[in-house]
Design brief:
The protein is an alpha/beta fold and 553 residues long. It folds into three domains: 6-201 and 365-442, Metallo-beta-lactamase, Chain A, CATH 3.60.15.10; 206-356, Rossmann fold (3-Layer(aba) Sandwich), CATH 3.40.50; 463-552, Ubiquitin-like (UB roll). It is 31% helix and 26% strand. The protein has 15 helices and 27 strands. An eight-stranded mixed beta sheet has the order 8-7-6-4-3-1-21-22. Strands 9-10-11-12-13-19 form a six-stranded mixed beta sheet. It has a five-stranded parallel beta sheet with strand order 15-16-14-17-18, sandwiched between helices. The longest helix is centred in the C-terminal third of the chain and has 23 residues, at 493-515. It starts with 5 loop residues before the first strand and ends with a strand. The model has no long low-confidence stretch (mean pLDDT 94). It binds zinc ion (2 copies). One zinc ion is lined by residues 20, 73, 75-76, 161, 389.
């Protein structure tokens, strides 16, 4: 690494929405920005979480000075509980961000010896080799920050997740004038949120959701209204509470994380509601439907969350039916569409009315669209740009947008996870690559690599096939006939024919091996496995997991 450059290593979040993490490095010292997780796709069987591959960081842990958090979402803080087992450095962030993160660390029983350092809006701190400035931005969680790293090659701005909401619920706007001032000083590198880079126009203000909710509540004075949203979306919760109280409804909270987050936000004075306005969810049946509003978690169809339990009639304290209206105040995260669809179906089955963002404006994104991104680029006028936080197409669209704003092609780099870039007075260049594959976590089994996951896919798709037989070593003959047992097969007429063919092939291959004098159990099992694999793959295009169990007696 050259002496007059600053290096940025992308550990996650470039090519996917989730597991955001990067390392910014000057003179051998490293500051980590965010440590997020990602939720698995449906075909990642048994995978609960996906983390960045932290090995590169852990190998350099003596050079890491701090972890800086932009905001409290899981895709930015959810991997901390794994990272801090190896790297114990101060963690910086806003009070709410740290509060959310600490809660998850406590739940996971790690990090009790960590030091957390709260930062205020606009504060500048000397952290590691940098001075880092925490610039307030609007997003779908309060207290989000953009970061300005003052480095020896100039200012590096990391946008964090943001939108330019000019009428936020708490009045805390993105500090546009500070961003413009940084632009005047000169920004050497911009790393900017690309989530909505494909979407034209401007993202609606969070406040617009309040208006939609108010109308929907007014139209349903006799219904019990259950609103589901992210538990971290404190401004959404505030708006639901405001609308409910206006219409003389009491508030009941459902779901553990909703309880915890509401408590923390009230303590930090970020959520305003009197204790007297709440009722215990266990007592909800004492009220007429039109007298209460339930706020719950599970808007993504998570099977263990409150709303899914409600939809299946498994919730402890109440059931939903024709007297209820459920509002999903959210939008499914990519990958969750199917489970949200099932959830909505189950609720309909219970006779419940369901309102979602597909037909009513009950959700507003927390991420900037093209109009806001253009504004951001115009404010900062960076010398170099790397789009971050997005799937690959989002990064490409964001790069095109930057070019259309006048930045020259050679100053824009589309990077992916594992890429390292160096920025100097000369510009920006790709300087290296580190391993940055998905790190899968299976809650019951621990860490997984690709191999068991691939086997699980094969099991799911093709089932398993066991081959058993017994061989007499002395005589070199099969004494217990070749038998095939399957799991996950239909075993209809076609399968039967196929299995007969496999049995014949396997028997022939074993007999061949025996006639050549082979008596080794391991090698005969391999011969049988290979023969079965070949005929199944080549002739029938199937790849079940093969379990040979042939014994030589
Ligand atoms: Zn976020
Ligand atoms: Zn994010």
């Amino acid at each position: 690494m050259s002496k007059d450059s600053v290096r940025v290593t992308f550990l996650g979040g470039l090519g996917e929405i989730g597991r955001n993490c990067c390392a910014i490095e000057q003179d051998g010292r490293i500051v980590v920005v965010d440590a997020g997780l990602m939720f698995p796709e449906p075909n990642m069987y048994g995978v609960d979480l996906i983390l960045p591959d932290f090995r590169w960081l852990i190998e350099r842990k003596d050079r890491v000075d701090a972890i800086v958090l932009t905001h409290g979402h899981e895709d930015h803080t959810g991997a901390l509980r794994y990272l801090v087992k190896d790297i114990n450095v101060p963690i910086y962030g806003a009070a709410l961000t740290l509060g959310f993160a600490k809660h998850r660390l406590t739940e996971a029983r790690v990090g009790h010896d960590l030091s957390f350092i709260e930062v205020a809006d606009g504060e500048k701190r000397k952290i590691g080799p940098f001075e880092i400035e925490f610039i307030p931005v609007t997003h779908s969680v309060p207290s989000a920050h953009a970061l300005a790293f003052h480095t020896k090659i100039g200012i590096i701005v990391h946008s964090g997740d943001f939108k330019l909401d000019l009428t936020p619920i708490d009045g805390r706007r993105t500090d546009i004038s500070r961003l413009a001032a940084l632009g005047d000083e000169g920004v050497a590198l911009l790393l900017c949120d690309s989530t909505n880079a494909e979407e034209p126009g401007f993202t609606a203000s969070e406040r617009s959701v309040g208006g939609a909710l108010r109308r929907l509540f007014l139209e349903r004075p006799k219904k019990r209204i259950v609103v589901a949203c992210f538990a971290s979306h404190i401004h959404r919760v505030q708006q639901i509470i405001n609308v409910a109280l206006e219409q003389n409804r009491k508030i009941a909270l459902l779901g553990r994380s909703m309880d915890v987050n509401v408590k923390l936000a009230r303590k930090l004075n970020l959520l305003h509601v009197d204790t007297a306005d709440f009722v215990d969810i266990a007592n909800i049946d004492r009220y007429e439907p039109g007298e209460v509003c339930v706020i719950c978690t599970g808007s993504q169809g998570e099977p263990l969350a409150a709303l899914s339990k409600l939809s299946r009639g498994d919730a402890r304290d109440f059931t939903v039916g024709a007297d209820d209206t459920i509002i999903l105040s959210s939008h499914p995260i990519p990958g969750n569409e199917w489970s949200v669809g099932r959830l909505i179906d189950d609720l309909h089955r219970a006779g419940t009315e369901v309102i979602h963002s597909g037909h009513e404006p009950v959700h507003a994104s927390g991420h900037a669209r093209q109009g806001e991104l253009r504004t951001y680029h115009q404010l900062l006028r960076p010398r170099n740009f790397v789009p971050v936080h997005g799937e690959y197409r989002h990064l490409v669209h964001h790069a095109e947008l930057a070019e259309s704003m006048g930045l020259r092609h050679e100053h824009i780099l589309i990077c992916e996870d594992g890429d390292q870039v160096e920025v100097s007075d000369a510009g920006i260049r790709l300087s290296g690559q580190i391993p940055a594959g998905f790190h899968y976590i299976d809650g019951s089994a621990g860490d997984l690599d690709e191999k068991p996951l691939e086997e699980r896919r094969m099991l799911a798709e093709y089932g398993v096939l066991q081959i058993s037989a017994g061989i007499d070593r002395e005589r070199g003959v099969i004494v217990q006939p070749v038998r095939i047992t399957t799991r996950g097969w239909f075993e209809g007429e076609n399968d039967k024919k196929l299995l007969d063919a496999v049995t014949d092939t396997v028997r022939d291959s074993i007999q061949n091996a025996l006639s050549e004098g082979d008596r080794d159990e391991g090698s005969i099992n391999k011969v049988a496995q290979r023969a079965a694999g070949r005929i199944l793959g080549q002739k029938y295009r199937r790849q079940p997991v093969l379990l040979p169990a042939i014994v030589v007696l």
